[in-house]
Amino acid sequence: MNKANILVASNRGPVSFSQADDGSLSLRRGGGGLVSGLSAAAAGAGTVWVCAALSEADRLAVREAPGGRLDEAGHDTGGIAVHMIDVPEDTFHRAYNTVANSVLWFVHHLLFDTPNAPAFDAAFRADWAAYRDYNGAFADALVAESADGARVFVQDYHLTLTPRMLRDRRPDLRIAHFSHTPWAPPEYYRLLPADIGREVLTGILGADEVGFLTERWADAFLDCCAAFLDAEIDHRTRSVSFGGRVVRVGVYGLGVDGPAMQERAAAEDVAERREALRAQVGDRRLIVRVDRTELSKNIVRGLAAYREFLTDHPEWHGRVVHLAFAYPSRHDLPEYRAYTEAVRRTAEEINAEFGTEGWVPLILQVKDDYPRSLAAYQLADVLVVNPIRDGMNLVAKEGPVLSQGGCALVLSTEAGAAGELGDDALLVNPYDVSETARALHAALEQSDDERKQRTARLADAATMLPPQRWFAAQAERLG
Ligand code: G6P
C-alpha cells in the first residue's frame, strides 16, 4: 500500500452505505457542513480520508474491503481514497452518541439546560474510555497510512484526543486539528469534569496548528487553555505555549464553492422539484429554512416567530408560505427524537390555527432531499437561519448564492456566519421570538432592488473562502 502525504480524519466520511432487503449494499455521498467542505477539497489530491463505519451497512462494506480501503475494494468514492475504520459497535455508540454528541456537542452549543443534560457518573467514565479507544483507532489507521513527514488534518469534536496520540507515536508528522463547531467559553466549559476538560484541550494541543471557523471560537479556545492548563496564551499572535511547544491557532471561515453549487443546481432533479414547488405555492411569497433536526438549530422558536408574524400581520394571510425542510439527524438520541416531534407539533398547530381551504401556511418536510433544498434556495424570498449557536452555518451562505430573485436573510447573531454576512442580513437574537417575527416582516417588505443588492453582496461574502482555498490555506500554514 502506498503511504499518503496528506490525510484527513473525521468521524463521518465522504460516503456511507445502506443495505436493501435483499442484502445488497448501495453507496451514497455523506452530508453535513464538514463533509461537503472537505469532499471538494480532498478530491483528486492524492489524499487518504480516514473515517468511521457509522452503521451496520458500513461495517459490512468495510469487512469486504482489504485494509479498510473502500476505493481499493472497487467502490466509487468520488476520486478520494477512503479508509473506513470498523470500530466495534458498542465503542462507536459510546464515543459518538454519548461522549461526542451528548456531551462535547452540548457543551460547545451551550445545551446543558435541556431535560436530558448529561450526568457525569460511573457509566460516563466507561463511555469516556470508549471515546479514548475510538480516538486511538483513528490514530492507528493514520499511523498505518501516513508517509514520513505527512500532513494530517484531524477534524472536529469527535477526534480531540487523536492529535496528541499521533504526536506521541509519530513526531515526524505535521498535524492540524480543526473544529467545525463553536467553542465554549471557560465559564461553560468548566461544567465538564475537570480532568476530561483538560484531556480534551491537551489532546487538541498535540497538533501543530489548531483551526476554528471564527475569531470568536478561536478566542474562546485560547481562554479555556489559559483557564484550565498551565499554558501561556498570546491573544495577539493567537498561540499557546504548552509543554515546551508553541501551538498556533488560526481562523479559517469556510465558504461555499459558487460555481460548483450553480452547476449542481442546474441539474434536472433540481428543476423538477422547483416546478413542483412552484405549482404547490403558486405566486405566494416564500420563507424558507433548511436544517438538520438539531436542537441547536432552534427550529421551534423559528416556527413560533412565523406564528407571531401571522398573528400580527393578517394582511399577509394567504400571501405567504413557509417551507421548512429538515434533514433527520442523530435520531439514536432520545432528545433529538423528542425535538423532531416538537417541531412537527408546532407546525401542525400553526396550520390548524391559520390554514384555510386554499392555503397551507407552513409546509414541513422531515426528509433527506438535497435537490429539493437547492430548489427552495432558488425560489426563496426570505431565508431564516436562527440557530442558538452554530460554528458557521453553510445554509446562510448557500441560499444567497443560488437565489434567483434575491432573498432576504434573517440570521442569528450566534451563527459564525453572522461575522461575515451581518452587514447585509437582518440579524436577530435567536431567543427573541418577537424580534425574529418582526425581522420576517421586514424581510418580506424589503424592496426588490434592496433585496437583490443585498443578496449579491451576501453571495460575494459567502464565496470568499471556498472549500479548496480553505483547505489549501491550512495546508500552507502547516508547512
Ligand atoms: C456538524 C459537525 C460535523 C457533523 C455534522 C453532521 O456539522 O460539525 O462533524 O458531521 O454536524 O452531524 P452527524 O452527527 O450526522 O455527522
UniProtKB/TrEMBL annotation:
One of the GO biological process terms: trehalose biosynthetic process
One function term, GO molecular function aspect: trehalose-phosphatase activity
Pfam family, one: Glyco_transf_20
GO CC, one annotated term: cytosol
InterPro entries: Glyco_trans_20
Highest taxon above the source species: Bacteria
Homology family: Belongs to the glycosyltransferase 20 family.
PANTHER family: BCDNA.GH08860 (PTHR10788:SF106), TREHALOSE-6-PHOSPHATE SYNTHASE (PTHR10788)
Entry protein name: Trehalose 6-phosphate synthase
Organism of derivation: Allonocardiopsis opalescens
